[in-house]
Amino acid sequence: MQSRSAALNTRVHPARPVVLLHAFPLHAGMWQPQMQALAERGFSAVAVDLPGFGSSPLRDEQDLDGFAARVLEVLDGLQVERAAFVGLSMGGYVLFRLWQQAPHRIGALVLADTRAEPDSPEARERRYAQASQVAVLGVEAILEGFVAGALGRATLDGRPGVVETVRRIVREARPAGVVNALRAMAVRPDSTPLLPRITVPTLVVAGEQDGLTPPDVAHRMAAAVPGAKLSVIPEAGHLSNLEAPGTFNRQLLDFLETSGFWRA
């Protein structure tokens, strides 16, 4: 598995790595606005393609614990022992599995537009139905439904460039990776028992117009994590890092700079 970003920049603040985990069904390219902002502030950003997406092969069917294990492989290859992690949507699900597997590798957490609860039976069935559609018809079968559901009204009405960027990235997804991810998310465990045991600085982010993981979900999650901070980003939906990159970046950078992780 390879990072979609350049190799970790060991020339500038090698002790300040930030690992970025993408949403479904995108790839690490969705983090381009954050990669630039992090580099400008002297952080070493590593945007990882999860199994079956972008440059990362899907060697066999994997659950989210397998996704987390592959992220650790990337860090081991880069000789990164501990980092701050940012996960959006599916990336957040993977972060919960990372916390379960290797909490000592995590120095700070950003949980963006995600949830700790497992799928409801109805949501699980929808994922299985989508997986069947993609297996037969390809990614186009779910593209427009995903765009309409994931992006906020402000983006759909007034940010055509963002809409087309999301369409382009989704179209680059491989059907086998999408099918595997849908099935993996459908059976993911309940991570809510982990929340009170998170002991690192944590920022919970939600788009104000996120219809998939609404702000009330973020409020509950932030309340359950000791000392967590909450940021609700105006006029953004489920892909808040792309829909409102300026606000997202300010919140992310302020959190990283004040988290205390870098001085630990």
Provide a compact summary of the structure.
The protein has 264 residues and is an alpha/beta fold. The chain has a domain of 176 residues: Rossmann fold (3-Layer(aba) Sandwich). It contains 11 helices and 6 strands.
Considering the chains and any ligands shown, give keywords for the structure.
264 residues; alpha/beta; Rossmann fold; 6-stranded parallel beta sheet; 6 strands; 46% helix; globular
How would you portray this structure in words?
This protein has 264 residues and is of the alpha/beta class. It has a domain at 17-117 and 189-263: Rossmann fold. It contains eleven helices and six strands. It has helices at 32-40, 64-78, 90-101, 121-137, 140-150, 153-158, 160-171, 175-186, 215-224, 240-243, 245-258, and strands at residues 17-21, 44-48, 83-88, 106-112, 202-207, 229-233. Strands 2-1-3-4-5-6 form a six-stranded parallel sheet, sandwiched between helices. The longest helix is centred in the middle third of the chain and has 17 residues, at 121-137. Mean pLDDT is 93; it is low at 1-13.
- Summed over residues and divided by their number, the pLDDT gives a mean of 93
CATH class of the domain at 17-117 and 189-263: Alpha Beta
Any idea what the radius of gyration is?
A: 17 Å
Shape: globular
Adjacency order of strands in the biggest sheet: 2-1-3-4-5-6
- Superfamily (CATH H level) name of the domain at 17-117 and 189-263: Alpha/Beta hydrolase fold, catalytic domain
Instruction: Indicate the structural class.
Output: alpha/beta
The topology string of helices and strands comes to EHEHEHEHHHHHEHEHH
CATH topology of the domain at 17-117 and 189-263: Rossmann fold
Per DSSP E runs of 2 or more residues, the count of β-strands stands at 6
CATH architecture of the domain at 17-117 and 189-263: 3-Layer(aba) Sandwich
